[in-house]
Specification:
CATH architecture: 3-Layer(aba) Sandwich
Strand order of the largest sheet: 3-2-1-4-5-6-9
Oligomer: single chain
Number of strands: 9
Mean pLDDT: 95
Number of domains: 1
Strand content: 5-15%
Low-confidence stretches: none
CATH superfamily: NAD(P)-binding Rossmann-like Domain
Radius of gyration: 20 Å
Bound molecules: NADP nicotinamide-adenine-dinucleotide phosphate
CATH class: Alpha Beta
CATH topology: Rossmann fold
Length: 265
């Protein structure tokens, strides 16, 4: 019999990475609240996970890009004291290059990848901090670290999730709450169902990705990049970034700019 951990609320549970999280968390003994728009898929998954793992599984059908749907999930997180883990996996890639001007598609993507994820993380941070326990897993992407002309807003949304998670950790870790940002590379799910013309060597199976991410979670990693062998490589990037901090806000401009102005006068 698996240990009891409380309830995990998993967004994007109707497909891909979120669906795998639901399976693995149920196997660990978590009860589940599965969030997505596809009621049929959620219902089928809920029945099968409950039967397979002997846990309580409930579907919460909600469109996270819609204010009413999002509020319903926020209310659940806020009011259900059994919830001990939020997995923010819902997300989409859309809009294409900014120069295509697909404004509605860009907004729909940002509503889920940025606005919904932030609001749910905030509610969870508030209630978990008050209880002095709980965990928040945010699905970012390796694209957080890669500039991409064809998916600029998607990449930026994932850079946002990474940045949000790093700052959120500073806020809630002292209050007993664990935060993890997961940065998968290409992962075999319906999101990249056409394979996107990618070689097999750069695409990970979703079950291997989620198992690696959960191993990172178990070891308390703040940032998990499932394919990265040496965490020192990421730590070096973080340290390089921190090297800039003493230079980012000073009372006077850098001499190279004032010298340029003086020579132009
Ligand atoms: N696959 C990759 O290569 C990859 C790589 C790095 C990061 N990621 C990230 O991992 C996360 C999961 O991606 P995936 O590959 O599992 O994609 P997926 O198979 O397409 O699943 C996306 C999930 O998001 C949910 N979703 C999308 N829009 C929603 C909305 N408006 N309201 C509620 N739920 C919504 C979908 O549920 P419904 O359709 O039922 O609403 C679905 O369950 C995403 O955040 C993605 O950016 C994926």
């Amino acid at each position: 019999m698996a240990a009891r951990h409380g309830t995990a609320l998993v967004t994007g549970a109707s497909s891909g990475i979120g669906e795998l999280y639901a399976d693995r968390l149920a196997r660990r003994g978590y009860d589940l609240v599965l969030v997505g728009r596809n009621a049929e898929k959620l219902g089928t998954l809920a029945s099968s996970l409950a039967a397979k793992h002997g846990v309580k599984v409930e579907s919460l059908v909600a469109d996270l890009g819609d204010a009413a749907g999002l509020s319903e999930v926020e209310r659940r997180l806020d009011s259900d004291a059994s919830i001990t883990l939020l997995v923010n996996s819902a997300g989409l890639i859309g809009g294409g290059p900014l120069s295509d001007g697909n404004l509605d598609a860009l907004s729909q993507m940002l509503a889920v990848n940025v606005v919904a994820l932030t609001r749910l993380a905030s509610v969870a941070a508030k209630v978990f901090s008050a209880r002095g326990t709980g965990a928040i897993i945010n699905l970012a992407s390796a694209m957080a670290l890669i500039d991409n002309a064809g998916a600029a807003a998607y990449a930026a949304s994932k850079a946002y999730v990474l940045s949000l998670s790093l700052s959120l950790d500073l806020d809630v870790k002292p209050k007993g709450v664990q935060v993890q940002a997961v940065l998968p590379g290409y992962t075999r799910t319906p999101m990249i169902s056409d394979g996107a013309g990618l070689p097999d060597s750069v695409v990970m199976d979703a079950d291997a990705m989620v198992d690696a991410a959960l191993a990172g979670f178990d070891s308390g990693e703040l940032v998990t990049i499932p394919s990265l062998e040496s965490p020192a490589a990421f730590d070096a990037w973080v340290e390089k970034r921190a090297d800039l901090w003493p230079h980012l806000s000073l009372s006077i401009p850098a001499p190279r700019y004032t010298a340029a102005k003086a020579s132009a006068a």
